[in-house]
Amino acid sequence: MNNTRIKWGVAVMMTGGALTLAACGGQQSGGSGTSGGASGAVAVDGSSTVAPLTSVAAELFQAQNSGVNVTVGTSGTGGGFEKFCRGETAMNDASRPIEAEEKAACEQGGVKYAPLTVANDALTVVVSKENTWAKCLTTEQLKKIWEPKSQINNWNQVDSTFPDEKLTLFGPGTDSGTFDYFTDVINGEEGASRTDYTPSEDDNVVVQGVSGSKGGMGYFGYTYYEENTDKVNAVQIDSGNGCVTPSPESVQDKSYTPLGRPLFVYPSIQALGSNAAFASFLTYYVENDASIAEQAKFIPLNDQQKTELNSAFQKALSEAGVSGSSPAAS
Questions:
Q1: I want to staple 173 with a disulfide (CB 3.0 to 4.6 A). Which of 74, 195, 199, 290 is the partner?
Q2: Contact 264, 118 (CB under 8 A)
Q3: Do residues 53 and 118 make contact, with C-beta atoms less than 8 angstroms apart?
Q4: Neighbour tally for 150: CB within 10 Å
Q5: What is the extent of the structural domain holding 147?
Q6: Cα angle vertex 245, ends 242, 249, to 5°?
Q7: How many domains does the chain have?
Q8: Whose CA is closest to 43, among 9, 16, 8, 11?
Q9: What distance in Å separates the CA atoms of residue 148 and residue 196, rounded to the nearest whole number?
Q10: pLDDT tens for residues 122-180?
């Protein structure tokens, strides 16, 4: 995959925890003045894992539509759904499917949505570059480390052949879909985790923590690993059929289990029908999904997933009362 994040002469600013992508030349308040004819504001929030994908989609789209201003926040999947179900955002990035209580909140808030699978991910367990022993861990060993009330605080407690080295843990916070997914497939219950680790909704904080501690361990999405291969090492995972390296190939062939997973965006049906800039942006996102995933260093959809995405998006457009493709799509 292409490891070079593209640059399009787009001004990038951090504003209140959200990544604001404002096209050079200034935002236009009305009229088109854009190659795609779109103008306006689009607010997205949610998963820090999916945010780089949506941000690259925004960069590409805004290069052709200078009147559109897209903000991509990273409140975590759960935190993002709270805003989304209150009608504060047009779309939520999610690293897991929406949950029952979130569905209820959206129903209460009158927000209809469409789950769209936009990429795949290899949830990646990482260790320090100084760690020369933990090249492969079993899912049982991961459970032993991360389960609630775990007393494992030294690597030699994980495996007697490992050195006497303090185990220091870093990971996503409880609002993260990555946290939900990991605890579900490793510990057997969503949200079930030891609490004596350093949590953060910012995956870069996890990278810094792991890289700065010889005995450090953490986990996050594959994109963040690819961006930090000079700082951390990926651990192979053995779920019973031997050690498997996280990679696009092992996710696509489903050998990287149970940490291979799909990634989602949840657009608001109401926003699709009322915000032309958002409808244009999402159409561009879906129609160019494969190239966006490659540029953002995500694992693209397979053929079946692509077909399902196109079908689900057309259904969402129909429900929103939007006919045909947006003129901004290419």
A1: 199
A2: yes
A3: yes
A4: 19
A5: 124-258
A6: 110
A7: 2
A8: 16
A9: 9
A10: 999 999 999 999 999 999 999 999 999 999 999 999 999 999 999 999 999 998 889 99
